[in-house]
Amino acid sequence: MTVDLKQWATWREIHSQPDIWEAWGKTLDVTGLRAWVADQNADEIWFCGAGTSAYIGDIIAAGLNGVRSIPSTDLVSRPQHYCDGARPLVVSFGRSGNSTESIGTLDVLDALAPDAPRLHITCNKDSALATRASSAAQKVIVLPDETHDAGFAMTSSFSTMLLTALALFDEPSDFPAQMARLADELRGVLHDFPATPRPLRAVYLGTGPLAFAAREAALKVMELSAGQIPALWDSTLGFRHGPKSFVTDGTAITLFQSPDAPANAYEADLADELRAQFPRSRVTTIGPNGDVPIDMSFGAMWAAPLVIATAQMDAVRWSQGLGLNVDDPFVGQGTLSRVVAGVKLYSVSP
Question: Does residue 286 belong to any structural domain of this protein?
Answer without folding.
Answer: yes
